[in-house]
């Protein structure tokens, strides 16, 4: 069985081009520039790579970019003050709180403090509620994770059949993290067809491998690189790898004085070839497109500000 590996690069490039084209058009029409702020923490292992990647992508698309990098001792009150200032800053139309946060911070409380009109990932509690229960209130922006997944499958011509079994494998830490748990359940409500079985399993559960072996679609969110074993998989399974782990840093081939990250997800790509039917890997895969969706949502926020301030 040949495994279809979906990287998402062409879709990402298409979204970035569409965003940059529309930003340029709106700048020409209104003489204003969309602004985005990235809030991150210096102690997060991948932050020194993730933050520049986000900044570069946003600037290339024509955004005015601010970065607010805090060390891991930052208090909730300090972050509230920072967010209060950004909420009322008319030059900033999108605020991205990069995950994960230091362990002493409550991610739900901090995310809830962001103006929901400027929270463009779909992680604000009210924005997640709008995704879960759309009849209550209109969602301002489509949630990035499930939207990226749906668009990637559509772009690759992958269709899900009825009556499939979806299994999400999460670390215990992600179950304990209220925000992560909410995000997974909200994203699943969008992506998983209503006539399919859905199980969200703690990686420490004694019968975890039984669920893996039954899964038609396996979603893996773990901080343990290449954890999933090929013997646990059902032939033809669709695997969606989500969490990026920094394994090590090595000298760049083009510049030995520069270090580059070695990133792995919870599934080894080579080990599942000819077992999985479809695979969205780490690095690349889903997270490649999520950034494009995020900037597209930030553009929607910019448009909203232009319409309301006329």
Overview of the molecule:
There is one protein chain. The chain is an alpha/beta fold and 310 residues long. It has 2 domains: 133 residues, Leucine Dehydrogenase, chain A, domain 1 (Rossmann fold, 3-Layer(aba) Sandwich), CATH 3.40.50; 138 residues, NAD(P)-binding Rossmann-like Domain (Rossmann fold, 3-Layer(aba) Sandwich). Helices cover 42% and strands 18% of the residues. The strands form 3 sheets. It has a 6-stranded parallel sheet with strand order 1-11-8-7-5-6, sandwiched between helices. The chain has a 3-stranded parallel sheet with strand order 3-2-4, with helices on both faces. A two-stranded antiparallel ribbon has the order 9-10. Strand 2, helix 2 and strand 3 form a beta-alpha-beta unit. Helix 1 runs parallel beside helix 11, helix 5 packs parallel to helix 8 and helix 6 packs parallel to helix 8.
């Amino acid at each position: 069985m040949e495994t279809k590996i979906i990287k998402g690069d062409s879709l990402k490039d298409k979204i970035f081009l569409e965003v940059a084209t529309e930003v340029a058009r709106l700048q020409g029409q209104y003489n204003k520039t969309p602004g985005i702020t990235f809030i991150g923490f210096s102690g997060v292992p991948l932050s020194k790579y993730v933050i520049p990647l986000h900044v570069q992508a946003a600037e290339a698309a024509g955004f005015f970019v601010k970065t607010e990098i805090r060390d891991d001792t930052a208090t909730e009150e300090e972050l509230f003050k920072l967010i209060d200032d950004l909420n009322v800053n008319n030059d900033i139309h999108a605020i991205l709180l990069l995950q994960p946060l230091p362990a002493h911070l409550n991610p739900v409380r901090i995310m809830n403090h962001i103006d929901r009109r400027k929270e463009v990932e779909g992680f604000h509690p009210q924005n997640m509620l709008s995704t879960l229960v759309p009849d209550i209130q209109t969602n301002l922006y489509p949630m990035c994770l499930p939207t990226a997944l749906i668009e990637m499958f559509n772009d690759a011509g992958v269709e899900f059949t009825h009556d499939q079994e979806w299994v999400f494998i999460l670390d215990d830490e992600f179950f304990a993290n209220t925000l992560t748990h909410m995000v997974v359940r909200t994203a699943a409500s969008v992506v998983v067809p209503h006539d399919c079985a859905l199980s969200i399993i703690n990686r420490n559960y004694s019968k975890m491998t039984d669920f893996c072996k039954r899964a038609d679609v396996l979603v893996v969110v773990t901080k343990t690189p290449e954890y999933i074993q090929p013997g646990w998989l059902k032939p033809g399974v669709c695997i969606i790898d989500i969490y990026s782990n920094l394994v090590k840093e090595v000298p760049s081939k083009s510049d030995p004085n520069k270090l580059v990250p070695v990133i792995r997800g919870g599934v080894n790509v080579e080990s599942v070839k000819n077992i999985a039917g479809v695979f969205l890997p780490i690095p690349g895969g889903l997270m490649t497109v999520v950034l494009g969706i995020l900037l597209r949502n930030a553009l929607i926020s910019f448009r909203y500000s232009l319409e309301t301030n006329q």
